[in-house]
Amino acid sequence: MTSVNGKVVLITGAANGIGAEVAQRLHAKGASLMMTDLDDAQLQQAAARLGGERVLTAVADVRDLSAMQAAVHQGVQRFGGIDIVIANAGIATAGSVLGVDPAAFQTLIDVNVVGVFHTVRAALPSVIDRRGYVLVVSSAAAYAAGAGMAAYDASKAGVEHFANALRLEVAHHGVDVGSAHMLWIDTPLVREGKADSAAFREMLRRLPGPLGKTTSVQKCGEIFVEGIEARKRQINCPRWVGLMRWLKPLLASKPGDRITAKSVPELLQQMDAEVAALGRSLSARTEALEKR
Hints:
The longest helix is centred in the middle third of the chain and has 28 residues, at 102-129. The chain has helices at 17-28, 40-49, 65-79, 102-129, 150-170, 188-196, 198-206, 217-229, 242-246, 248-251, 254-261, 264-278, 284-290, and strands at 8-11, 32-37, 55-59, 84-87, 133-137, 176-182, 184-185, 214-215, 234-237. By secondary structure, it is of the alpha/beta class.
């Protein structure tokens, strides 16, 4: 177990949800924080709750490499370097491959995949210099796909493999790389999905056993920080989600498809109708940030 006391942590998507929760917990353990997000108002609120000490914020879009490089430069200038980078920023879309807005699909890939690359690319020289740790926030969606989630699933599977490749590249520098895999966490992303889509709520209700249950942000933050301190290869939340990784071949098989296949024709049609009625595939909050 490695203490984060005195370490410098860069966190993207730090204004709310998992990012803000992990930031609070790491700060309480003595870490200094470079927090970035697109939402300036919520970012400042999150920083203010920490008292401002050992905290630096930057409004930065992970899709913009120069913005992420500038944020890293600010962190290095203020704190001397970056020890840990948490590539957390991410969004979701709604709708089937035929129903999703193509522009929203592109935006998601740009944020969830290209944004991870930009975050890591910008911070990696300092992380290597400090023999630090990189955490790429993926999802349980990298272990098991879901109808109506093709964009999100593709992005999270992609960044998991990005983390796997990066691990091979930097191990000889003394840098560890992990990926985080969450099921349903009570974040704005999941709450917005539930608010927008009755089909999404019904899909969660029909999932067997614990697969449709939502975990608190607080519990997720606890698991994240434990994993960060241990420089883990995988962080799973809830912890049993790690079983899905080993069951991935089964989950992607015909028997695995049967877990949700019966509900797909009905619920996917309903989801696409909801997307059409709303006139958007992104959440209202994400669209508002896009228009700023």
